[in-house]
Amino acid sequence: MFTLTTASSHSQEIKRSRFLAIAGPVADEQAAKDFIAEHSAADANHNCWAWRMGQNYRFNDDGEPSGTAGKPILQAIDGQELDCVVVVVTRWFGGVLLGSGGLIRAYGGTAALCLQAAEKIKIVPMTSVGIEAQFSDLALLKARLAASPGTSITAEQFISTGAVLTLNIPTANADDILQMVTDLTSGRAVIDRS
């Protein structure tokens, strides 16, 4: 799965109707609603949209015939294996009716072109882990953790015997990284996976 790094847009004219797609990354449902409200044009005939976050998704045809706008936009998101993404496609009617098939192609196609042009980043599932390490192990441990791809130290709290580190590590590599911590500290590090 991938998500977008920043907002992206694409516009095109189809039979005198102007379509503008704006896509962006979102963290939750409220962020998606805010994005939709911010990027809906008041002077447009239709502001159709779709968003997906994991198993949660929503779409809206905003007055277009049922299933001809929001669902094709969602299919464009899913077709490019995107997650945590919202797309708004705005239509200014140009006087020529497109029919159901034409609307599906116009909305889905505009959304797909917008998403294809957008800069994407791979979503890596992460796990948060706490590690209590002694002062004697701390420097080497932090250096090795910094060299582990995708691993980051999100918090560090010093205690009388050393420090408690909070790590964000890729879930797929969690066992290997934690085994490295155990080996490096000869089992002295206390690992909290809760």
Automatic annotation (TrEMBL):
- Please list the GO terms describing molecular function: guanyl ribonucleotide binding; ribonucleoside triphosphate phosphatase activity
What's the domain of life for this entry? Bacteria
- A Gene Ontology biological process term: regulation of translational initiation
Looking at the record, the residues that make up the Impact N-terminal domain are 15-114
Instruction: Name the Pfam families for this protein.
Output: DUF1949, Impact_N
Which SUPFAM superfamilies has this protein been placed in? EF-G C-terminal domain-like, Ribosomal protein S5 domain 2-like
The record's Gene Ontology cellular component field reads:
cytoplasm
Instruction: Quote the InterPro entries the UniProt record gives.
Output: EFG_III/V, Impact, Impact_N, Impact_N_sf, Ribosomal_Su5_D2-typ_SF, UPF0029_Impact_C, UPF0029_Impact_CS
| Domain UPF0029 per the UniProt entry, residue ranges | 131-188
Q: Which family does it belong to?
A: Belongs to the IMPACT family.
Q: What is this protein called?
A: Putative YigZ family protein
Organism per entry? Rhizobium lusitanum
